[in-house]
UniProtKB/TrEMBL annotation:
Source taxon at top rank: Bacteria
Biased segments, Low complexity type: 457-472, 497-527, 609-629
Annotated TM spans: none
Stretches the record annotates as Disordered: 392-430, 451-539, 567-699
Organism for this UniProt entry: Pseudoroseomonas ludipueritiae
UniProt biased composition (Polar residues): 598-608, 659-669
Name of the protein in question: DUF4175 family protein
Positions with biased composition (Basic and acidic residues): 411-428, 485-496, 528-538, 677-699
Amino acid sequence: DRRGLRLGLLVALVAALVVAGPETSERLRRAVQPAFGAPVPPPSLRLEAWISPPAYTGAAPVFLPPEGGSVTVPAGSRLQVALSGGRGGVPELRLGETATPFRALDAGSFTAEVPLDAGARIGVRRDGQDLAHWTIATQADAPPRIVFAEPPGPAQRGLAIRLPWRAEDDWGLANARAEITLAPRPDAPPLALELPISGDSKQPRGVAQPDLSAHPWAGLPVRVRLVARDNAGQEGHSDTAELTLPERRFEHPVAQRLVELRKSLSLDPLARRGVERGLDELSLRPEDFEHDLTTFMALRSARYHLTYDRRREAVEEAQALMWQTAIALEEGRANRTARALAEAREALREALAEAERQPPDAERRAELERRVQELREAVRQHLEALAEQLQRENGDTMPQDPQARLMDPQELDRRTQEMQDAAREGRTQDMQQQLAELERMLEALQNGQVARREGGNRNSQQQQRQQRGQQQMGAIQDMVQREGQMLDRSHQREQAEAGQPQQQQRRSPYGQQRQQQPQAGATTPEQRAAEAQRDARQQRALRRALGELMQQFGDLTGEIPEALGRADQQMRQAQEALGQGGDPTPHQQQAIRELQEGAQQMAQTMQRQFGQGQQGQEPGEGQGEASRGQGREPGGGQGRDQAMGQGEGRDPLGRPTRSEPNSNDTGSDTVVPGDAEALRTRQIQEELRRRGADRERPPSELDYIDRLLKTF
């Protein structure tokens, strides 16, 4: 062995011993005592069990531990067990006293599945030996509950009914509806109204406000019942409430009579004779409906339906025809076409919204084209009706209005054609832009018609609207003052809890002097908690008043300042903080700022819509327009001086100098501060007060702020 190869064998043996580690002796033993043909040991036993709840619950499967245990699951769940490995025969699944053999998947794998309709003890047995067992309890699905949150009744505005409701279910509702039955005819098919469910389906709530003034039951007593249905198919019912459906009031005598006849058919569909005689009487007096041929034909058609058509649907068709005739007599063609135009616009908007949620395919593009065509036809009919109305009223054709370019048929064709092309190509954004432009033109047309119709009454109505707006702005200022008073009390409670001395006879930044306050520690925690609860109730009432004022201002101007909405949110948070014993001051301060900003936005809206700059114009507003109208530049030099009243014969503050000869200073150009200045002053006061409440500022600055506040 000249090369020393035996050393390599020694190294390999040492490496093998190191790799084998603790199994060295066992491996050496098996090397000298081989076991040829020994059986392969079976794979280890593996048991898996899980319970799948019913699909309507939406719950995840429940896995059972192999060592056993107990669990509660919804009734109707299914137990699945899978077993593999081990030795023995076919296992069986024992459900109480019932044994179910497993189904073989292969030579060593088995599975079983059973429904769980009731609680039981479940076990897995193989060759007489228990492998696992569990105790299963089932929970039956409770039917849903639904009730009226408040008694139903007519809505505060309009002809709708108000149906506040709330419901609950252990696994969530599938749908909810309101069933309305006619009280004089309980056997009549009920009217079902779907109640939208949004948010939490286990405890949903909402307020439905359907407008049933056009329904044949309008003006009649009805019974309302709420029905909730869960995903398991179970239904829950509320108590029955009674009310009278609101109905529309008609002034035209023929329309009134038609509505009465229509209502009598709702009470007794078999009493056709009396309605037929009533229609005959109306037809024999054409002077009552201005000898309108369309109205006469509608009356005769309704009479034909009742006389010769014995189908059950004939009564409903006659009622629909009578209602349309009454609306036409009451509104006239122009109002009727305007309503049809509004419906066509709303239908197109809904189709556009649906196309945005899902990619537009051929079917949706065809639907958009059809909606555009319906809108085009509705616009054409409305324009024709307006032209006829103006011709009847003024004996002339419709005047050319530069804001109503829609009157040009070519302009109409061009816009509707562009919308149809966009619908055909699926360009929903272009359609939305065209629809927005079309709606602006229609609004301009409607405003022009209203302006011409009002004529000389416009100024008086404008003044009334201005007065209402000023009253609402005054209410906002009162809210700022009340919110400031609550903020004062919050600061006083905070100082009392911190043990800080309160300053005496400080003037509030909201225009009122504070009352003499007791020193710190003079009030107990119980008294402060009671005062906080009173402030919470006052905050809730103030927030409710703000909501009503926002709705009134929206009805007046069509716009609701965004700052008022933010103020409402801050008031809600302040109310929650007061009720829970928290610190409401940040929310109250922010609410005051938002109220002040909202008042400014209200003033701007009224200035823009009502033109208040012409009457009682605020300082600095409209003067730039006057200078531009006279060919001056308000931005600098001579133009700015003249706009501010600074010119010859005036001092640097814009006041006329009395030393000028023939000076006739009557003080007519003296400007009284208006609402904008008052709001700005309150903002400055609020900012000073906010900084004064920060006790971490330097004492000199706090003293300076306090002296500034005392001047107010």
